């Protein structure tokens, strides 16, 4: 099946919350939707979902970090791939979308925590 990566939408909240829960976070769908709406009001936020066969299998959150004392960069602040799909390059594909987003928004470097 073909992997598709696209920008996240508020309607993805239940699936995003489910994957976050699988990773140990206590995120409820309504909370995720509310956070998503707030994040989309801010500049320098990129949110992506990965799906295969119509099923969401991962997501990523990248944000631009502007600093006075050093060069700005894009930081991956969230990356989750569902357990059964790990090791298949989905995380790398999501990181590629984060890198592309960073470059398109003027952030030459991509950093992971």
Q: Which class best fits the helix and strand makeup?
A: alpha+beta
> End-to-end distance, in Å?
31 Å
Strand order of the largest sheet: 1-2-3-4-5
Q: Helical residue percent?
A: 25-40%
Radius of gyration, whole Å: 14 Å
Major β-sheet profile: 5 strands, mixed
Structural features, described:
The protein contains three helices and five strands. With 113 residues, the protein is an alpha+beta fold. A hairpin with a 2-residue loop joins strand 2 and strand 3 (55-65). Helices cover 33% and strands 31% of the residues. The chain has a five-stranded mixed sheet, with helices on both faces. Helix 1 (13-22) crosses helix 2. The protein starts with a strand and ends with a strand. The longest helix is centred in the C-terminal third of the chain and has 15 residues, at 90-104. The chain has helices at residues 13-22, 29-40, 90-104, and strands at 3-7, 45-52, 55-65, 73-81, 110-111. The mean pLDDT is 96.
Quick structural gist:
The chain is an alpha+beta fold and 113 residues long.
């Amino acid at each position: 099946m073909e992997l598709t990566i696209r920008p996240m939408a508020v309607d993805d909240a239940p699936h995003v919350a489910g994957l976050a829960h699988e990773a140990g976070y206590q995120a409820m769908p309504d909370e995720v939707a509310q956070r998503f709406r707030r994040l989309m009001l801010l500049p320098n936020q990129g949110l992506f979902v990965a799906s295969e066969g119509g099923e969401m299998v991962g997501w990523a959150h990248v944000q631009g970090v502007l600093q006075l004392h050093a060069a700005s960069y894009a930081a991956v602040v969230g990356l989750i791939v569902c357990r059964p799909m790990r090791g298949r390059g989905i995380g790398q594909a999501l990181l590629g979308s984060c890198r592309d987003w960073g470059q398109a928004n003027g952030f030459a470097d991509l950093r992971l925590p």
